[in-house]
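Homework help board

Subject: predicted structure for assignment chain

Our instructor gave us this sequence and asked us to write out the predicted structure in C-alpha cell form, then describe one feature. I got the C-alpha cells but I'm not sure how to describe them. Can anyone check?
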Amino acid sequence: MDDEKRLNEIGIIHGTSIILDNNIDEISYKTIVNNIKSENEPEEIDLTNTQSNDSITNTQLENEKIDGPLFKSFDAYLHENGFEIGDLPLMNSFLPIKIKRGIINKLPKSITIRHQKYRHVDHLEMMNVEEVRRFANFWLNELQMSLQRIGWMYGYYTEDQHYPYGIRAVCEAIYEPPQYSNINDVIMIEDEMLMNVDKIAERLGLERIGMIFTRLPNECFLTARELIRVIEMQYNSLKHIHYTGYPISTMVTCTMSPDDNGQPVLNAYMASDLALALFRDELFTSSQSFNHIISTKCNIHHDSTNNSSRGSSGSSTNTTGGSGTEEVIRELMPILIESGKEVVDFDTSWLIVRINESAPIKPNSFFPKLTIPFPIENRNTNSTNTNSTNSNMDGMNMDGIKYNVIKVEKKELMEYINGNGDELWNNFHFLIYICKVLDVDTALSICDSIIQQQPIDDLIKELLLH
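My C-alpha cell output:
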C-alpha cells in the first residue's frame, strides 16, 4: 500500500508511460495526470481534441492528418469504377479447397492484403457530448483506467456534405451492457435487455450505430483481439440494402484512450470488407496472441514435391458420391500475399479503415442535458454488487470484475424525478430503467409521447416511487 501511495505522489498511476534509458542514470517518464473531480463538473473533460463539425472546411478535409491511406465514400468509389462490385471481397469466396484424387481440382483464390480504398461511413459525430463525458469520467475517475469499459452507441445516419456521397453517423446515446472488465480488456456478456433497448431506440427514431470502448495507450490502432471484436460486430450487422446488392455494414467502432495529459482522445474505425470476408470463411485463428499481428490458418506455399504442400491439412478422407468413392487427399488454404510475399500473419493495420470523428461546438442533442442526470445502468462498483470472476469467454481466460446490475436507489430516483422538469422522461437511461422495473410497453408508450410532445401520466411516477 505504501508503494502505491508513493507512486501516486509522484504522479504514476495506471496507464502512465515510463521510458527507460540505459544511457543515463535517472528514469524519465511521461505522466498521465488524473485530475478528474466529479461527474457534475463537465469542464474537467476536454472533448475538443476531436474536430468540431462546425469548424470543418474543405481545406481542412484535404489536409487532414490521418494515419494510413485516404478513403473515399463507398458510393463515390462505385461511381469512379463503373458500379462494378464483382471484385469486391464480400462477393468472393476464400474457402479452402478439398483436393480429390483422380479429378481436375480448382485451386483456391490468392488473397492480396492491401488497404481498402473506400469506407461505408465517413464521419462519426458525438452529438451528445455530455453522454461521452460521463462515459469518460466513470472510466478515468471511478475506475482510474484500471478496468476497461464498453458500450453500444445509438444514433442515426445522415448525409455528410463534406464528402462526395458521404455518410455521417451521429451518436446520441451510449448504453453500457453487462460486461466483464480487467485492466487490459473488456467483454460483453449475455444481455437480456439488449433487444428492448433496441426497441426503445427505434421508437425514438434511433438505431444501434456501433460500439465504444476504452483502452490503455497502445502503439497499434486496434489489437488483434479488438479487431476481431470489431469484425464480428460488423459481420453480424451486414445488410443487403444497397442498390447494387452488395452487403454492407455501417457499424462504427470508437476507442477512447488517454493522452499524455490524462484527457480522453477518441478515434473511430471500421474493419475492411476483406476482414469480414476472411472472418466469414473462418480463416482467422481462434486465439490471437499478439497485439499488432493478426494470425490466420493459411500456410506458406511449398514446392509440390514436398509432402507438406501449401495449405494442406494433411488429412485424407473418403466421400461417396453418385459415381462411387472419391478420396480427398488434402485441403488447400488460400495464399495470403502481403507486399508481394506469401504470409501467414500480417499487421492489423491492413484491415483497419480510419473514420473521422468530431464533437460539435454547440451540441444539439435529441436528449436534453438535465439538472440531475439519471444513473447509468450496469455500473455497480461497491463490494456487495461486484463479483471477481474467472471466465473463459470468447476463447480467452479473463480475470475481471462483473458489471451486470441495473439498480437505482429510491433516494436517487426521487432526486431525479423531483430535480428535473417535464424533460425528465426524455432520457435514454431512464427509459431503460422504466423498461426494466415496469415493462417495455410502458417505456414505448412514453417514447411515443416524447415524439408527439404530449404529456405523460403522473401515475407512472407513482408506480416508480412505490
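Reply (TA_rk): Your C-alpha cells look well-formed. For the description, you could write something like this. The chain is about 25% helix and 25% strand. That's the kind of observation they're looking for.
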